[in-house]
Amino acid sequence: MNTMRNGFPEGFYWGGAIAANQAEGAYLEDGKLPSTADIKARGFFGGLRRDADYYPTHRAIDFYHRYKEDLALFGEAGFNIFRTSINWTRIFPTGEEDVPNEKGLQYYEDLFREAKKNGMTMMITISHYETPLNLVDKYGGWDNRKFIDFYLKFVRTIATRFKGMVKFWLTFNEIGNAAVIPICWDAAGLHPESENLEQRMYQAAHHQFVASALATKMIHEIDPDAQVGAMIAYKTVYPYTCKVEDVKAAEAAKRKEYFFSDVQARGYYPAYIWRYFEENGIRIAMERGDEEIIRAYPIDFITFSYYRSRVVSADYEEPAEKTTDTLEGLVNPHLPKTDWGWTVDPDGLRLALNELYDRYQLPLFVVENGLGARDTVEADGRIHDSYRIDYMSAHIKAMREAVKDGVDLRGYTMWGPIDIVSNGTGQMSKRYGIVYVDLDDDGNGTGNRSKKDSFAWYQQVIASNGEIL
């Protein structure tokens, strides 16, 4: 007889997540060449420029040289999983080389061994918002089918080299953002001011679906013990009012969000997307066998980022506040906001987990969730971030309720356990970590690490398997 789970299962994965391009720095060191992430001046809101006076990610927090120190801190906190990414241009600097860069491979091998020494299982995002800039300059982005072969060469190389060292692989970070402006640059190497942009974005997504399916096949063959998952950006969607028009708009927004996980998890293009393509003049060029490949190699599990919910209305003239630094437009007037105007909605995470599990019946991981806030260092060096504790506590409680609801939730990797450069704004002052890094928005500071109050709190959460919050 089945009974309700009262808490997180034994063996639950607790940890944190970062991205190589936001943390490593050393952007031209040991053979690495520029990626698409390296020309973003102060985040994507700062524009794509090759002549800016400062790029925060070029130095970032120097995780490239200080990873042993940082992993020791994560181990002290009790992490049993760590999610990061492999910077493509550390392995294939231009993307076109036949022989990989050994220094890049050795760096990640050393990093993974150090993580294991500190008690952590590795979860690796293969492509996390960085593509060799040379490939984009020469071939135009993921709407060019050539990118599938470049990507698969990268996948084969790292899956072979790191066989037995990586348990969980994620093929693309927030794959749905290939069809979101301006993040299409991050996710697919498409300039947000390109002509025929929506056509290009969905064509790029198709090539990523094929690449993801073939990568899943390849990784399973190389390392049968490894699992391959999708990673999507998920925002629970509410209609702004109970007007039928708003409800329909919200349902349409949900479907655009579900499209990417539908293809990767179910193995086929859902019927509803063809109407959208027809009404918007989008024509997907498929080669013979593409649909069979996507159907044959679906992912094993689903991971997602959750920071906030969003509100959709058919009529944007409704009396609602509009955001200044997000992409959704309307803000829910019933929810509090962060320092950067993002709504805080832990109940939305419980809904997200139930919606995704009801839809796919696949294991789930929450692999990004956290609070970007301004932290104050007190005279004694301490950082009292009770607001971060409150945020994380509420969201972990929501996860626990979803587990009671019957959701097969396997793990939680907060974003990001150490302060890193914001992808959106390029700021260090938008801090997520339980570990503070002494750097400001202009790169000034010692780079030294120190624990915030949230460090000891999260350590206790992990030690109690989510019982003490």
Could you outline the blueprint of secondary structure elements for this entry?
Elements: E1 13-17, H1 20-23, H2 56-59, H3 63-77, E2 81-85, H4 88-91, H5 102-117, E3 121-127, H6 133-139, H7 146-161, E4 168-172, H8 184-188, H9 197-222, E5 227-233, E6 237-239, H10 244-266, H11 271-279, H12 290-296, E7 301-305, E8 310-312, H13 346-360, E9 364-368, H14 386-404, E10 409-415, E11 435-437, E12 449-451, H15 453-463
Parallel strand pairs: 1-2, 1-10, 2-3, 3-4, 4-5, 5-7, 6-8, 7-9, 9-10
Antiparallel strand pairs: 11-12
Helix pairs in contact: 3-5, 7-9, 9-12, 13-14
Globular, elongated, flat, extended or rod-shaped: what is the shape? globular
How big a fraction of the residues is strand?
5-15%
Distance linking N and C termini:
30 Å
**Percent range of helical residues:** 25-40%
Major sheet description: 8 strands, parallel, barrel
SS content category = alpha/beta
Tally the beta strands.
12
Averaging pLDDT over every residue, what do you get? 95
| Radius of gyration from CA coordinates | 21 Å
GO cellular component, one term: cytosol
Protein name: 6-phospho-beta-glucosidase
GO molecular function: beta-glucosidase activity
Active site: 368
